Amino acid sequence: MAAKYREFQQLNLPSIETEILAKWTEHQAFEHSVSIREGATPFVFYEGPPSANGMPGIHHVISRTLKDLVCRYKTMQGYQVKRKGGWDTHGLPIELGVEKELGITKEDIGKTISVEEYNQKCREAVLRFKDKWDDLTNKMGYWVDLNDPYITFQNEYIETLWWLLKRLHEKGLLYKSVSIQPYSPAAGTGLSSHELNQPGTYKDVKDTSAVAMFKVIENSESQFLFDAANQTSTGSDQSSPEVFFLAWTTTPWTLPSNLGLTVGPNIDYVLVKTFNPYTHLPVNVVLAKSLLGKYFKPEGENGDFEGYTAETKLLPWEIIAECKGKTLEHCRYEQLLPYEANSAEKAGGDPFRVLCDTFVTTEDGTGIVHTAPAFGADDYKVGKKYGIGILTMVDREGKFVDGLGEFSNRYVKNYKDDANYVDVNIDISVKLKKENRAFKVEKYEHSYPHCWRTDKPVLYYPLDAWFIRTTAIKDRMVELNRTINWKPKATGEGRFGNWLENMVDWNLSRSRYWGTPLPIWRTADGAEEKCIGSIEELNSEIRKAGEVLGGEVNKNYLHNGILDLHKPYVDEVVLVSSKGEPMHREPDLIDVWFDSGAMPYAQWGLDQEKLKAGSDKPFNAPFDQNFPADFICEGVDQTRGWFYTLHALGALLFDSVAYKTVVSNGLVLDKNGNKMSKRLGNVVDPFRTIETYGADATRWYLITNASPWDSLKFDLEGIKEVQRKFFGTLYNTYQFFALYANVDGFAFREAYIPLSERPEIDRWILSSLNTLVKDVTVAFDDYEPTIAGRLVEDFVDEHLSNWYVRLCRRRFWKGDYSADKIAAYQTLYECLETITRLIAPVSPFFADWLFGNLNAVTGRYAETSVHHVLYPVADGTKMDPALEERMQLAQDASSLVLGLRKKVNIKVRQPLQRILIPVLNPAMREQLEKVADLVKSEVNVKEVQYLTDADGFIKKKIKPNFQALGKRLGGKMKAVSAAIAEFDQEAISKLEKEGSYSLEFDSEPLILQIHEVEITSEDIPGWMVSSKGALTVALDVTVTPELEQEGNARELVNRIQKIRKDNGYELTDRILVKLAEAGNLAESIRQFSSYIKAEVLADGLELVDTMGEEAMAIEVNEQSVKVWVEKATRS
RNA sequence: AGAUCCGUAGCUCAGCCUGGUUAGAGCACUACACUGAUAAUGUAGGGGUCAGCAGUUCAAAUCUGCUCGGGUCUACCA
């Protein structure tokens, strides 16, 4: 006896997964899936390293499912896909976590705790949840190499980063400069953007804002302003008129550092003649035209200048000139608040000019932006462009420097919680008012960032930082980006593309402790600097410095070299310059994004031989075959993170893309569309989800519910639905197969029956199957797993289960082990087996389980896992579009007839004589004839008749084919459409016969072609009719006595089958049946005796007069009858 | 504030690129049927201002613009 297909009580995905997981572990299925492809074309995948200092969430499951399915798919297509895991181990989140845990702040580090101890804590915290992560990886079926991951804090990793940095340094792409960064004077530290994004950082505050007046200097650039002012100058005012630029600020304390005024080149500005509302002196002011309304009332326009006094409420004003911002460029003005400390010389440039830039808006203020390069990123940028120098009149404690007269040494905000603090901003405003230099002073409410630690306002402050000159290759990065296949496309072109267009240099510096140290040593005067590119190089420099400088220098590192590349050790190292001066390390760490962006190189580490040989890619061996990546995938939040840094480093260092395809998946929200957060308590625990519903159902749900890049509303009900609908159906189909295949001992040992010898329906399902394979492959190749999954779902449900199996049920249990039966088994087996391979990438457990169950009996594959076999390839010779089309016709026809039966309430078991189908053309008839038998048995009718218009009793309906006709007719469409609607039967049949029809339209001839209309049959007078599209079906609902008797027989069969089942008989048991008191059923029984016997596997069917108590009373079509069923003894 | 994605039935989504006249599925709901796949299945029904407004067009869920709502990223700036 051959092995049996496994049969089950019910579907239990989690227990299947436990079983498969054990099998994978035992046979090292993952390792094997890679090693069997040794020598094959590699498909390169990069794993974006997660940070293991927090628990994994459900959102990690989606991106990892995507990664996994692509890798599995490519493996099954014959590529070798190595997947090296990795861990991101540096960075602020880790440090903040440790600070919180230890109850310390940044200031404590190096004081109450040594940097050495602190970094040790970070190192311990970093992989705290690694076990949990590994557990999830395992349970969700994510195949990735966890045994040999790259870890960013390891020396080998950091060493490679250093080499890369050195490379950038050599290319002149790594430089030190000032940048304007958020800075907290109260805490005495710069703030990262991460810190600035803490909740509650932005607060609405009321600040004193001032519109300051900058006095224009008369020269050739500004002459036109003065000319206009002079022309309208009135007799009472003999002195030469004064012209001012109006500029608004919410931070008057930045005014002593003012060096420029910025206007928008395309903004319209006006010169307005008016009076200063505080001093009442006549003035001429420049501001943006669209902002006039903020300062001047419409009633005051061209008002009474002569009669203006201090008491006049309404300010008269008049526009006396107009120009674009570009015209104002380079105009000069007098410094607003000159002191000894803020002279033009000290600024070190050519200040007090009007500048142009597009960042200027006219939404607030005056359209002229007061520009203090030290205190704003935009200001700094535009200031640098024009070379106006820089003044930093505030120190790091947040107070004015010496040499600013009455403002010297005053805090610009109340940083010290001083109860007697007097707001210097008010004092500055008052001074301006008195000096005829303020046009408007008022409180202004706006949102402003505050330090999350001290709650004090942040200010933007120039700090030293190291930069990578990404802007140097901006165009190349844009160009390379165009070659990357972005999914979705819009993210690459839009979000990422715009980001590249507006790129600024990459600020690498972080003033923290736990991270990759910048490998740059400098002399005190900064004249000489060294960038170290390897451990070997550092050690040799250490020894050199030890020799030259002598004494205690580097004494801890002279013998064994440096053992840990982190702080504080590297900071203890002193190097020596060519002139014998000591060099100290630049204290910064580098941005963690550099760590992860450099993983294509650093994951392999440096090859010391290649390094010595001076290779320009001195990385360990697999690098050459593993760069660039064919595919990466992470959340959209990585667009400016990992996607960017990978791209930037690939382009900067090797003039290459780092990845060819990138999939950015969307967020996972809760079922109400809210972001998941611990605070709201709506986080979904991935472990519980997987344990309850199974990883496969979860994966399938995540993939098929929405495109990966759309945000997903995660609902457990959806997983249940997938479980029931998809896996349940597929499982049922397998159970059905196994049930009968075990009875018949089918093990695919017979020769493959040629398609030409199989029935229509077999050829149809195999054709559909191959079409499915083709479409699924196209979808996967296009990184559209959602489409692929939905296609498989539709096939399994609609085609395989609800049509093929339903229609073929009898073939499996009826009759001998004939050729037809074998064909049915072979066909269904082929479908199931192919589906296991199709779904293997998405639902790896269930697929492997099903594949194993099938293959265990047939042994068609030598491989023990579906993940080791090849992905199905569509067989064109099995595809037959006409066949698929006519089967659709059959399904539609059946559905229509069943609908009609329902309407007249005649059950399907009651046979009916015939259906009529009007055929519009010979091709349609041919198609229908081929599937007529299927339709007949499906809807239980005896015959199908075809009606042609020759029979004369179809009424046809005509309507324009808008798509075809619209192109030709355009505007006449409406009228012609109305004319077509008026066609009578004669006109329609004329058009059909001749293929065209001419009509007169607007006294112009118009020839209507047959393909420009759609003709359908509308009605068959006197019949029950139903239609869908071009297909119309009529049903003969007459139940003749003969039909009724047959119906009775079938009903009886049905009842006896039920008894068999209730009695618990085996499918193959023979029975004996006795019936009594059958009334008007007796005739049916006699007439259909052999039919009944065959159907219920009865050796005998007897009509008797009476029966004992034990007989069962049943009802058949409202006629009661007594029946007795017993097992027949085998003869 | 800018960029970007999304908005179609009670819920989850197709359809939109390439405009075409009854806007589709599944779930849920209701009724009926089927009963040798049965903790399965089928049929039918109700349920839509395709977020809103304007435009282009003979024709708009589909193309364009604006507005509103939600998400994400970037920024917070005088």
From TrEMBL:
Membrane-spanning intervals of the chain: none
EC number: 6.1.1.5
Catalytic activity reported: tRNA(Ile) + L-isoleucine + ATP = L-isoleucyl-tRNA(Ile) + AMP + diphosphate
Residue ranges of domain Aminoacyl-tRNA synthetase class Ia in the record: 20-711
Pfam families recorded: Anticodon_1, DUF5915, tRNA-synt_1
Essential cofactor(s): Zn(2+)
GO molecular function: ligase activity
Sequence ranges assigned to domain Methionyl/Valyl/Leucyl/Isoleucyl-tRNA synthetase anticodon-binding in this UniProt record: 762-914
Key words, A-Z: Aminoacyl-tRNA synthetase, ATP-binding, Cytoplasm, Ligase, Metal-binding, Nucleotide-binding, Protein biosynthesis, Zinc
Motif 'KMSKS' region boundaries: 675-679
Subcellular location: Cytoplasm
Aminoacyl-tRNA synthetase among keywords: yes
Residues binding ATP: 678
Locus of motif 'HIGH' region: 50-60
Key word RNA-binding present: no
Domain comment quoted from the record: IleRS has two distinct active sites: one for aminoacylation and one for editing. The misactivated valine is translocated from the active site to the editing site, which sterically excludes the correctly activated isoleucine. The single editing site contains two valyl binding pockets, one specific for each substrate (Val-AMP or Val-tRNA(Ile)).
Assembly behavior: Monomer.
Family recorded in the similarity comment: Belongs to the class-I aminoacyl-tRNA synthetase family. IleS type 2 subfamily.
Role, per record: Catalyzes the attachment of isoleucine to tRNA(Ile). As IleRS can inadvertently accommodate and process structurally similar amino acids such as valine, to avoid such errors it has two additional distinct tRNA(Ile)-dependent editing activities. One activity is designated as 'pretransfer' editing and involves the hydrolysis of activated Val-AMP. The other activity is designated 'posttransfer' editing and involves deacylation of mischarged Val-tRNA(Ile).
Protein name, entry field: Isoleucine--tRNA ligase
Source species of the chain: Flavihumibacter stibioxidans
